[in-house]
């Protein structure tokens, strides 16, 4: 059966990319972990955790743990993939385009939200 995807997104505007503060330790931890970087790269379009684990060649338990951490920090968005058969699934997509780290006055991080 063909699944339907419903993703809530803000209406696109001509405003510049929105920058949000992100925790320096979390951002640096993501960037220091090759699996996390690979997972975020793969989440350029919505995927279930199972699809993500298969794409990245990692154990399902690892994928769930990291996606939960990504979701808590706001670097991925969750939506629901609707299925006509009634088996709906959570799917995730990267919500940022960049993580910027600066060392001007201590360590500062910004996450740049994706443009629609």
Features:
Arc Repressor Mutant, subunit A, 116 residues, disordered N terminus
| Spatial ordering of strands, largest sheet | 1-3-4
How many helices? The count is 4
Secondary structural class: alpha+beta
CATH structural fold name of the domain at 24-94: Arc Repressor Mutant, subunit A
What quaternary form is this? single chain
What does the secondary structure layout of this molecule look like, with pairings?
Layout: E1 3-6, E2 19-21, H1 24-32, H2 34-42, H3 49-56, H4 60-73, E3 76-83, E4 89-94, E5 96-102, E6 108-113
Antiparallel strand pairs: 1-3, 2-6, 3-4, 5-6
Helix pairs in contact: 2-3, 3-4
Structural notes for this entry:
The chain has 116 residues and is of the alpha+beta class. The protein has a domain at 24-94: Arc Repressor Mutant, subunit A (Orthogonal Bundle). It contains four helices and six strands, in the order ββααααββββ. It has helices at 24-32, 34-42, 49-56, 60-73; strands at residues 3-6, 19-21, 76-83, 89-94, 96-102, 108-113. Strands 1-3-4 form a three-stranded antiparallel β-sheet. A three-stranded antiparallel β-sheet has the order 2-6-5, covered by helices on one side. α2 (34-42) packs across α3. The protein starts with a strand and ends with a strand. 19% of the residues are buried.
């Amino acid at each position: 059966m063909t699944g339907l995807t419903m993703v809530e997104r803000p209406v696109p505007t001509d405003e510049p990319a929105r920058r949000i503060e992100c925790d320096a330790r979390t951002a640096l931890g993501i960037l220091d972990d090759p699996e996390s970087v690979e997972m975020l790269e793969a989440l350029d379009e919505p995927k279930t955790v199972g699809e993500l684990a298969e794409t990245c060649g990692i154990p399902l338990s690892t994928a769930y743990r990291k996606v939960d951490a990504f979701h808590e920090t706001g670097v991925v968005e969750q939506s629901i993939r609707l299925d006509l058969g009634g088996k709906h699934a959570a799917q995730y997509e990267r919500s940022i385009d960049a993580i910027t780290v600066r060392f001007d006055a201590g360590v500062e991080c910004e996450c740049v939200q994706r443009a629609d």
